[in-house]
Amino acid sequence: MQVDLPVRRQSRLSLTPLIDVIFLLLLFFMLTSTFSRYSEISLAGGGSGEASAASRPDVILSVAEGELKLNGNLEPLASVADRLGELKDAGAERLLIIVSPHAVAQDFVSVMAEVNRSGMPATVARQQR
Length: 129
Hints:
Keywords: Cell membrane, Membrane, Protein transport, Transmembrane, Transmembrane helix, Transport
GO cellular component, one term: plasma membrane
Distance between the termini: 87 Å
Largest sheet: 5 strands, mixed
GO molecular function, one term: transmembrane transporter activity
InterPro entries: ExbD (IPR003400)
Transmembrane segments: 12-31
CATH architecture of the domain at 57-126: 2-Layer Sandwich
CATH class of the domain at 57-126: Alpha Beta
Mean pLDDT: 82
Number of helices: 3
Strand content: 15-25%
Shape: rod-shaped
Structural class: alpha/beta
Strand order of the largest sheet: 3-2-1-4-5
Low-confidence stretches: none
CATH topology of the domain at 57-126: Nucleotidyltransferase, domain 5
Number of strands: 5
């Protein structure tokens, strides 16, 4: 006895679900990306030379991971520009910003924005590990 099996039809692979998934991923990444506005901060180029007592900084701002110290005292980021303005009015002319190797880049950029807002000229140094 011969049994005829039904001929199995080959189904075509549909690309519609693949395209749907790609669009969903695209939508996900577009919505989760940052929409913050990037801005430029001008930095003066460094030069070599011998330091003298006259070029000592009047104010030292230390930037560490999540921590700011202005002349050794903890200071919140929101008040840095105001404090620097007060120190500038009191006669401070030179600011040294010391950046810790463990500092986050965003902390440094935020500090530079506040320093630019205060109008005090600054020199940036990197702390050794």
